[in-house]
Amino acid sequence: MEAVPRMPMIWLDLKEAGDAVSVPRDFEGCSTLRKYLGQLHFLQSRIPMGAGQDAAVPVTWTEIFSGKAVTHEDIKYEQACVLYNLGALHSMLGAMDKRVSEEGMKVSCTHFQCAAGAFTYLRDHFPHSYSVDMSHQILSLNINLMLGQAQECLLEKSMLDNRKSFLVARISAQVVDYYKEACRALENSETASLLGKIQKDWKKLVQMKIYYFAAVAHLHMGKQAEEQQKFGERVIYFQSALDKLNEAIKLAKGQPETVQEALRFTMDVIGGKYNSAKKDNDFIYHEAVPVLDTLQSVKGAPLVKALPVNPTDPAVTGPDIFAKLVPMAAHEASSLYSEEKAKLLRDVMAKIEAKNEVLDQFMDSMQLDPETVDNLDMYSHIPPVLMEKCAALSVRPDTVRNLVQSMQVLSGVFTDVEASLKEIRDLLEEDEAQERKLQELLGRVPPAPGSPPGLAEVSKECSKYLELHEKASFTNTELHRAMNLHLGNLRLLGGPLEQVRAALPTPALSEDDKQVLQNLKRILAKVQEMRDQRMSLEQQLREMIQKDDITTSLVTTDRSEMKKLFEEQLRKYDQLKVYLEQNLAAQENVLKALTDANVKYAAVRKGLAEVEHKWNTTVQTLVASYEAYEDLMKKSQEGKDFYTDLEGKAAKLLERARAACQASQAQRQQLLERELKKQPPPRPTAPKPPLQKKALELEPGGSEATDLGSLGLPDLPEELRSLPPELLPGPLAQLPP
User: Fold this and answer.
1) Where are the domains of the chain?
2) Phi, psi dihedrals of residue 322, rounded to the nearest 5°
3) pLDDT per residue over 689-725, tens digit each?
4) pTM for this structure?
5) Residues contacting residue 520 through CB under 8 Å, at least 6 positions apart
6) Chain mean pLDDT for the chain
7) Cβ-proximal residues to 579 (8 Å cutoff; 6+ apart), any chain
8) CA atoms of 251 and 183, how far apart (whole Å)
9) 265 exposure class (CB count in 10 Å sphere: 0-12, 13-18, 19+)
10) Rounded distance, CA 114 to CA 307, Å?
């Protein structure tokens, strides 16, 4: 996978102001923006240029998504726009590199982390009301996009370095987590309205990447299972990777060729891995393939972070050019107060994050999704993939008949070949038996010459054809079995849609079951309401802290009174803190109610899951039967061609076998005649009655060989008396029975 083509990255346009803040799109531009940001920070701490202050001047910047000019009389607006451009420029530089070298991957990863740091500082330290492109939702989206792309660069580097499979899987899973967060923001109606038409393009790319990197994660989990010789787990992980990659391919329509190349490359890798793993497990290891949900989920490993921005770092901003204008005491006091606010925010966020972690773990363990908790809508219609197959068969009404006829023709040719080979084998066995019998009779005389060379060649070719026939017979049987397996499904797909719909399983819910579902949905809605309220209160707290500037008060406050002033100012947050505490405390009761509802839902859920599994299995089986049709026809034709050729060869071989057996029979007769001529003349005997009369007196079942002397013919040796008549030479062969 280290050679997989690189996916494109998302980058942001820079805001424009039409003055000296325009910078080149390179490293020097980033440095210039950082220096300018630092000097603005030094300036605003000394001169009253904030909103409503005496020295405030109009500041105008374009809003990215609408292109409209937005003006505020606030120096912090200038800082915010410069900070936004710093993040946007880093994103642009990160996306420009092709990332084909190790150094390129590192540089791009650093740029995206710097971009995330700039947007994080902007979100946490500046008002969000300046313009749409700097709202909290948009900035949070940008942060997750940049972190996801930085983690993606790290994943490419890890695959290039051939890191351990489990580590690569965790890195890839974290890419998925970042992009899922970004996708949630993109799916938010408010965010979508803010982004405008660019939202759809971003959403398509991010959704595709979610499935793609989930496939990469499961590919490497399968490779880890292979290393651990867990061959059943290997199959299910590669199967899951293949399924997720197919979803990514569906979502990649309209994406650039670089995306398509990456998907094709990955499909070759994953498809090959899955086919090999399944074949090995089916024929060699025979390990049970577990259900994916029973395996431990892949936990992401966040190895990137938002690199912090420090506007006062002299190594970045250079010397403070306004150092002599304003005393630093007020600024120092303001920094102390900012730290108090940050401490308050950290304490509150620690409680929120702890509760959120419990809530997330609980909901993950429940595996309950309010949107699909019953999933009943899917049973009301035939799925599109099945409709497509039905439509295809509706214009090919002779599908089943053609398949049956093809297989019948194959069976006929198969039978003819088998009959010819059997006759050849019988001829050879009969000839061998006659040869063996003759050798037994002539054991005291020199052995018979070898069989005609044609007979050995016939025997060799017959063995070869029998071996070919035996191997092909297994294939033929499997082909008929496959046809019988798919024939009924093909008839169903080619029939009325009502029959197809009736063949798909549907759940049967009682009134009690419906009530259980309704109650569960109601409580799940409460959980979501609790989440939304918590996020809203958190957002209010952040915005309140960001707007809380007491610099003016600090200038007129005695240094000894600073602590008291801080305490008074921080009390304004008490009400919000109370609301948050109430929200956090309510979580325990809500989860208890959800637990009780889930217990009642267990039986219903099991039934729905079984029906859904049967439904999916039925759909997959029907689709597989459709897709198997062309393969069956192709293999049937190949079978007919093979047996037609073999039939011609077998017929020729049969003629040769007959001729060779006749030659062998003639050879044995000649040998017998020679042996008889070597026998001594008969001894004189008393006169015997006439031959005809004596022959008439033979009793049925009598031994003709013992009476040859009485018939006036020479006695045969003991070992020739049981020889069948057709092997006797000359007049002996004409004796009456």
Assistant:
1) 12-162, 196-302, 328-445+452-676
2) -110, 20
3) 544 433 333 333 343 333 434 333 344 555 455 555 5
4) 0.49
5) 368, 373, 594, 597, 598, 600, 601
6) 81
7) 537
8) 14
9) middle
10) 5
Give me Rg for the CA atoms of the chain: 45
Tens digit of pLDDT for each residue in 253-282?
Answer: 999 999 999 999 999 999 999 999 999 999
Q: State how far the Cα of 258 lies from the Cα of 142, in Å rounded to an integer.
A: 23
Q: Are 105 and 157 in contact (CB under 8 A)?
A: yes
Q: Which residues pair with 72 in a beta bridge?
A: 59
In sequence order, what are the residues at sequence separation of 6 or more whose Cβ sits closer than 8 angstroms to the Cβ of residue 378?
A: 612, 615
Please report where in the chains the tokens 């198997």 appear, as a residue: 628
Q: Domain 196-302: give its CATH code.
A: 1.20.58
- 91 and 10 Cβ atoms separated by less than 8 Å: yes
Please state, in angstroms and as integers, the Cα–Cα distance from residue 554 to each residue in 174, 324, 550, 566, 671, following that order.
45, 19, 6, 10, 134
Question: 729 to each of 450, 667, 703, 720, how far by Cα in Å?
Answer: 20, 12, 18, 11
Rounded distance between C-alpha atoms, residue 198 and residue 192, angstroms: 9
> 482-511 burial by CB neighbour count: b if 16+ within 10 A, else e?
ebeebbebbebbbeeeeebeebbbebebee
Tokens of 264: 């094709």
Q: In which residue are the tokens 């923001």 written?
A: 185
Strands 69-72 and 59-62: antiparallel
Q: For residue 57, what are its two tokens?
A: 């001047």
Two structure tokens written together for 709: 């002397």
DSSP per-residue letters across 600-613? HHHHHHHHHHHHHH
CATH superfamily of 12-162: alix/aip1 like domains (1.25.40.280)
Burial 392-423 (b: 16+ CB within 10 A, else e): ebeeeeebbeebeebbebbeebbebbbebbee
Torsion of Cα atoms, 524 then 527 then 533 then 536, to 10°: -90
Report in angstroms the alpha-carbon separations of 335 from 36, 107, 309, 566, 615: 20, 33, 16, 12, 63
List of the chain residues with pLDDT < 50: 444-450, 690-715, 719, 727, 729-737
Angle at 700 between CA 698 and CA 702, to 5 degrees: 65
CA 555, 560, 566: angle at the middle one, nearest 5?
65
